[in-house]
Amino acid sequence: MLKNNSEVVRIVGADVGFGTSIGVVLEYNPLTKKTLWLGKRIISSRARQGSNLTGDILNSLNNTYRVGNIDYTVDEKNNGEGVDDRKEYHFSTIQCVLMQHLLQNLQLKNSDNLKIVSGMPISLFYATNNKRNDETIGRKQENLEKTVVTPLYNAEPIAIKNVSMLAEGVGAYLDFILNDKGEFVSGSEEEVVSIIDIGDGTTDIVTLRDVTVVDFDRTASQNIGVSDVKNEVRKILERDYNVTDETDFRINKMLYNRVYRVSGRDFSQDQIIAILTEAVSNVLVRLTAFVKKTLSRSSDIDRILVVGGGATIYGPEIRALFPQAVDIEEPQLANARGFAKLGLYNYKAENDRSEERFSRN
C-alpha cells in the first residue's frame, strides 16, 4: 500500500445517513495511474449529547467527541438525541460528529491527502427551478468544514475539507455506470435509468438520461424509510406486549438478526416474523404508492436500480413492480461507492488537465 506520498490521494465516499453511516475509501496514484480500493465500513449513525452512556462504557471511550465545550457520544445502543427534523439533520452538529466518527473508523489520518464526496436528499440538493440548490449545498459544506470536532480518546482530529456534494441516488447511478477505475462502462451513457434509494430516513427517486440530465417529472423525495419500519415495530410491541420506548439497537437485532428478548424471555421466530411482516406491510403501502406515482411512466426507462439500506427489506417487492429492475450487489453500499467513483473521475480529469497545461509551458 502506498503511504506518506503527497502525490497519492485518498478519496472517501461518505454516506452519512439518519441511522447508518457508510464509508468507502480508495487510493489513487497519479504517477503510476493505479487505483487501490482500501476498505469499507458500515457503522451506526446514532449520537447524543453527553459522554455518559447506557451502553458499553469501555467501547464508548472510543466514540466520544467534543464540539466547542459540548461533548457528544456515538452509541448504537441508544436512539440518539439527533435532530427530529430530517431536513435540518444535514446542517446539524450531529452530522459533523458522525462524519468525524466515520473518518476515524475508516482509519484515516490528517496527513492523508483526502478528497471527500458526500450526499444530500434530492429535495435539498435541487431547488424548485430544477437547478442545483447552491444555498443548501454550500450550507452543508460550510457546516462540515468549519465545525471542529475533536475526539476525546487521544485520536488526532481529521480536518474535513475539500468536500463535494452529490444528490443521493445519483451516487448509486454513478456506481452502476462507472467501473472501479472511475471510467464509464461502454454503452451506459445513453441509457435512461431510475434509482430508487431507500434510506433510513428518506426515499429518493431520481431519473437520469445521458448521464447528467435529470428528468424532474420522475424525480422526487419523501420521508419514508427504514426508520418508519422501526416505528411500526414499536407500536406493535406496545400494543401487543406492553413494551414501550424500545431502542433502535434492539429493533435492529430483530430486523436484521431475527433475535428479540424481553424480560429474560426470547421471542419465537413465529412471533418475530409476525411483528416484522405487519410492520413492513404497513410502510410498504405508502412506499409503493410513492414509487408508482413517481414512476407512472416507465416504459422508456432502460433500468431501475433499487438501492440503500431499505433495499434489503423492500427490494423484492419494489423490483417486482418493474420488469427492467436490476438486482444490485450490496445495495446498501451503492451510494458511497458511487460517491468515491465520482471523486476519482473528477480528480483524474483535473489532474489530466493540469498535466496538459504543464506540458504546454
What does the model show?
With 361 residues, the chain is an alpha+beta fold. It is 36% helix and 24% strand. The protein contains ten helices and 17 strands. The protein has helices spanning 57-60, 93-105, 122-125, 134-146, 170-177, 226-241, 248-257, 269-294, 311-319, 334-360, and strands spanning 9-16, 20-29, 34-44, 47-49, 64-67, 70-74, 114-120, 150-151, 163-167, 192-198, 203-209, 213-214, 220-222, 261-262, 265-266, 303-307, 325-326. Strands 10, 11, 12, 13, 16 and 17 form a six-stranded mixed beta sheet that branches. Strands 3-2-1-7-9 form a five-stranded mixed beta sheet. It has a four-stranded antiparallel beta sheet with strand order 4-6-5-8, covered by helices on one side. Strand 2 and strand 3 form a beta hairpin. Helix 5 (170-177) crosses helix 10 (334-360) and helix 6 packs across helix 8 (269-294). The model is unreliable at 1-6, 53-60 and 356-361 (pLDDT under 50).
What features would you highlight for this structure?
single chain; 361 residues; alpha+beta; 6-stranded mixed beta sheet; 5-stranded mixed beta sheet; 24% strand; disordered N terminus; disordered C terminus
Estimate the strand proportion: 15-25%
Uncertain ranges: 1-6, 53-60, 356-361
Main β-sheet, in a few words?
6 strands, mixed
Radius of gyration: 21 Å
SSE order = EEEEHEEHEHHEEHEEEEHHEEHEHEH
Helix content: 25-40%
Average pLDDT value? 86
* Class per helix and strand makeup: alpha+beta
The total of helices stands at: 10
Beta strand count: 17
- Terminal residue distance: 33 Å
> What shape does the CA trace take?
globular
